[in-house]
Specification:
By secondary structure, the protein is an all-alpha fold. It has helices at residues 3-17, 20-29, 37-57, 60-83. Helix 1 packs parallel to helix 4. The radius of gyration is 14 Å and the shape is elongated. The model has no long low-confidence stretch (mean pLDDT 90).
Length: 86
């Protein structure tokens, strides 16, 4: 494995893991007051685009990181929509 691949996997792991605490906290507390619906909507769409880019280019670190991040970001987005005060 090349150094650039290791760097890609390390970056993918760190940026993906960064979303776990937010998703977990939101799931446990159902508190979405500090989450921007617009930001998470755009961010989730952007992650989906990165995933598509990774698939097109057969880039495993990009595919792996963005597939997991998409699930986490989409989960937070769904919770923001479901748990927000009407």
């Amino acid at each position: 494995m090349q150094a650039s691949d290791l760097l890609g996997y390390a970056a993918a792991t760190m940026t993906t893991i960064a979303f776990v605490p937010q998703a977990w906290r939101t799931f446990k507390t159902r508190d979405v007051s500090g989450i921007s619906l617009k930001m998470y909507s755009v961010f989730t769409a952007g992650v989906a685009a990165w995933l598509a880019y990774g698939i097109i280019n057969k880039d495993i670190p990009i595919i792996a990181a963005n597939a997991i991040t998409l699930l986490l970001a989409a989960a937070v987005l769904v919770m923001k929509i479901r748990f927000r005060k009407q």
